[in-house]
Amino acid sequence: MNTMTLWHVSGWGFAALALAALLVGFSKTAVSGANTVSLAVFAAVLPARASTGVLLPVLIAGDVLAVLTYRRHAHWPTLWRLFPAVAAGVVAGTLFLVWADDGIVRTSIGAILLLMAGVTLWRRRTSGTPEDPDEVGTRAGRVKARSYGVLGGFTTMVANAGGPVMSMYLLSAGFRKLGFLGTSAFFFLIVNVSKVPFSAGLGLIDGRSLLLDAALVVFVVPGALFGKWAVNRINQRLFEQLVIAATVVGGLQLLLR
């Protein structure tokens, strides 16, 4: 069976999806947030609602590679604080997808990414001294973790767009490069795997979508390997700038489409 024909994807369209899959691998092991560009590409080539189901297994493949690469650098107190709030956000996002049609989903994806880009820049300009990741146990740290967790769960369920939310949270919490990547790797692996039953129940993941995923997932590996090579050559300041820039580009790209 011809996967491209099944999805009515042109050769150029498949090439764009393959490049986006490669970028997913790179973002998972180097510049978290860069896969917002991948999100925009998938939503541009495929129907917006269906694109979230096709992209999810590709993201999980990248998450597995990121966990294998940075598993020793995860900050588990932060993860345990986030998960309950994220679960609530995922449920809210699932309920939203029950009634949202393709047009609403497309508009929502663009709005979510633009909002995240704007808040990221605002936070960067107004924040003072970076916090310490261990401050997650304070009252203020718990409130912030819950707020970001709910928003991250909702955005990742609706549009696989939780990356900008979590990137902003981890940067504001004072995570250094490897701690950032290790914590986000486990976070997104657990969250994305937990989304599979919801997405399947909504009809977003089926045999048709998995067939396309099988053709795309091979492109994630070279992207992840390149990211692992590149991250050791990126200093902390440049790393943070690239994370924010990737968020902005991804949001604008989809908004202007």
From TrEMBL:
Compartments where found: Cell membrane
Membrane topology value: Multi-pass membrane protein
One GO CC term, this protein: plasma membrane
Keyword Cell inner membrane annotated: no
Membrane spanning residue stretches: 82-99, 105-122, 148-172, 178-198, 210-231
Keywords for the protein's UniProt record, in alphabetical order: Cell membrane, Membrane, Transmembrane, Transmembrane helix, Transport
Pfam family, one: TauE
Keyword Membrane: yes
InterPro entries: TM_pro_TauE-like, TSUP
Superkingdom field: Bacteria
Similarity comment: Belongs to the 4-toluene sulfonate uptake permease (TSUP) (TC 2.A.102) family.
Descriptive protein name: Probable membrane transporter protein
Provenance organism: Streptomyces argyrophylli
